[in-house]
Design brief:
Elements: E1 3-4, E2 7-10, H1 14-23, E3 29-32, E4 49-50, H2 59-69, H3 76-95, E5 115-116, H4 122-135, E6 140-143, E7 146-154, E8 157-165, E9 168-173, E10 176-179, H5 200-207
Parallel strand pairs: 1-9, 2-3, 2-10, 3-6
Antiparallel strand pairs: 4-5, 7-8, 8-9
Helix pairs in contact: 1-4, 2-3
Length: 222
């Protein structure tokens, strides 16, 4: 048995759900997740999202705060991109149903109150809104309780992924595969990561030849 689809997204946290929604504007998407769609680190995240939305604040301040917090080890282009797209991201999440608090807060290394919360369950509210949006999208199919095993690689080109569903090994061929599987917290003796965070995606990508960098900074705390 083998299947064909346009895009495969592996992982149902905020990154995977958002990737599926973006790709669904073009073609069919198959989203694969090892438990239920809502089982992810995103669902347990209490902290808010930093974004410049106040006229008294500005991108340069936010960018400098982020670089200082990262001891300037940060990828500057990535920081600039994230900072400049923060406001539109908050608007987009609010549009699909995330009820952010009216007031922003001052936290961590930030020099201005730019943290947007949805009470104290921000991750849960974002996950819930994104899952609802995905499940009502006609271009997205969701396979829960499905394990990604490996990417299908030939001559260093990815043609899809192999998964296990209902105790069957199924090769799925696609134009693009997105690995959005989170970190590897459960590899450690002590972690606040949920049970699903076992480093599968990192291992799959590494075996396929993907480059890894700064994995020591992958963390999560609820």
């Amino acid at each position: 048995m083998k299947l064909l689809t346009d895009f495969i997204v592996i992982g149902s946290g905020i990154a995977g759900l958002n990737a599926a929604l973006m790709l669904s504007k073009y073609e069919k998407v198959l989203l694969v997740t090892k438990k239920k769609s809502i089982d992810s680190a995103t669902n347990y995240a209490q902290g808010g999202i930093a974004a410049v939305t106040d006229k008294k604040d500005n991108f340069r301040f936010h960018e400098q705060d982020t670089l200082k917090a990262g001891v300037f080890h940060n990828n500057k282009k990535a920081v600039k991109f994230l900072v400049e797209h923060g406001k539109n991201t908050i608007k987009q999440l609010a549009y699909i149903g995330v009820a952010f608090d009216k007031k922003t807060t001052l936290e961590a290394a930030h020099s201005y109150p730019r943290i947007h919360h949805a009470t104290d369950i921000t991750g849960h509210e974002i996950e819930k809104a994104l899952v609802k949006k995905v499940l009502t999208n006609k271009n997205i199919s969701v396979w829960e309780h499905t394990y990604a095993v490996d990417l299908i690689i030939k001559n260093k080109i990815c043609f899809g992924a192999t998964v296990i569903k209902d105790k069957k090994i199924i090769p799925i061929f696609s134009r693009l595969v997105v690995l959005a599987t989170g970190g590897a917290g459960q590899l450690y003796s002590y972690t606040t990561n949920p049970d699903v965070v076992t480093g599968d995606g990192l291992a799959i990508g590494y075996r396929a030849g993907a480059k890894t960098k700064d994995l020591e900074f992958v963390q999560f705390h609820p």
